[in-house]
Amino acid sequence: MRSDGPLSRLEALHFVRRVVEQQAQHQLGLIDRWIAQEERREAERHRDEEMRPAPPDWLLEHGLNGPQHRPLYVHIGACWNAGDRSRPVTREQALHALQQQVPACSHCRPDTALGYLD
Questions:
Q1: Which residue of 4, 10, 30, 55 pairs with 77 in a disulfide if CB–CB is 3.0 to 4.6 A?
Q2: Which phi and psi angles does 73 have, rounded to 5°?
Q3: Full-prediction pTM beyond 0.70?
């Protein structure tokens, strides 16, 4: 910088360019950190999905009385409508429940998937 007077227009433009360049570098550094954080989160989500056990093939949904009473519904393991009181069962147990007149879920239709015909 000059000490003998005001800056020329050209000197002022060079100064402004340096300031904008410094600010841009700072902002790019912030954005790069945000990108790195999001990439870590995505990697963690992907790793969690890979480690999550597969859903069971079949579920029996029980009512508030618990599993000692007759089940409410038979579901396919990944049914979105299966309640919190569902427990995994084998194919044979699901077929047996259908034979015992436990209703099949009307959303996932386990009776069709099991090939069960009344």
A1: 55
A2: -150, 155
A3: no
